[in-house]
């Protein structure tokens, strides 16, 4: 499989994504759950569905969207991810990157909450680390743009 097809194909919508997991302090998990419950309770008439809220323990930073429409493509992408992971960890210097969540937005932004299918939070990297995070994301993007064999050594 040419992994670049996993990004560029116009024949199918996105089916998978590459992400970096986020680790949250317990108080942030509580705040996110409280916000979700409040938003659902307060805005009952707007048709907001609880499915647009991610569970705090699966919060992540999306790096790249993929179009993997069959098992062969999924397996090839998984192989690329397995092989690129050490390079990503090296780019992050095996240290955490600290971020601050800055508000909430609906995706896609179609003007009304009922048309949204996901809520996301823009972020700000704090305490340095932006260059490490950009390098890690760039490695993922290059590997899927070039194909599965040319970027991982």
What does this structure look like?
It comes from Solanum stoloniferum. Residues 14-139 form the A-kinase anchor protein 7-like phosphoesterase domain. It holds the Pfam family AKAP7_NLS. 39% of the residues lie in helices and 18% in strands. Helix 3 (71-91) packs antiparallel against helix 4. With 153 residues, the protein is an alpha+beta fold. The two termini are 18 Å apart. It has helices spanning 5-8, 26-42, 71-91, 130-146, and strands at 16-21, 60-66, 98-101, 105-107, 118-120, 123-126. It has a two-stranded antiparallel sheet. A two-stranded antiparallel ribbon has the order 3-6. It has a two-stranded antiparallel ribbon with strand order 4-5. It contains 4 helices and 6 strands; from the N terminus they run αβαβαββββα. The chain has a single domain, classed as Alpha-Beta Complex (Cyclic Phosphodiesterase, Chain: A), CATH 3.90.1140.10.
Task: List its salient traits.
disordered C terminus, AKAP7-like_phosphoesterase, 153 residues, Cyclic Phosphodiesterase, Chain: A, two-stranded antiparallel sheet, A-kinase anchor protein 7-like phosphoesterase domain-containing protein, ASCC1, Cyclic_Pdiesterase, 4 helices
């Amino acid at each position: 499989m040419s992994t670049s097809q996993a990004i560029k194909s116009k024949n199918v919508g996105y089916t998978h994504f590459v992400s970096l997991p986020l680790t949250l302090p317990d108080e942030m998990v509580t705040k996110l759950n409280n916000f979700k419950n409040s938003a659902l309770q307060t805005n009952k008439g707007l048709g907001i569905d609880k499915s647009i809220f991610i569970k705090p323990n699966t919060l992540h930073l999306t790096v790249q969207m993929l179009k993997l429409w069959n098992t062969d493509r999924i397996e090839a992408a998984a192989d690329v991810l397995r092989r690129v992971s050490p390079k990503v960890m090296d780019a992050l210097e095996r240290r955490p990157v600290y971020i601050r969540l800055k508000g909430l937005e609906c995706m896609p932004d179609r003007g009304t909450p009922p048309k949204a299918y996901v809520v996301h939070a823009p972020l700000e990297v704090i305490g340095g680390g932006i260059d490490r995070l950009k390098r890690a994301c760039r490695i993922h993007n290059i590997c899927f743009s070039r194909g599965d064999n040319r970027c991982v050594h």
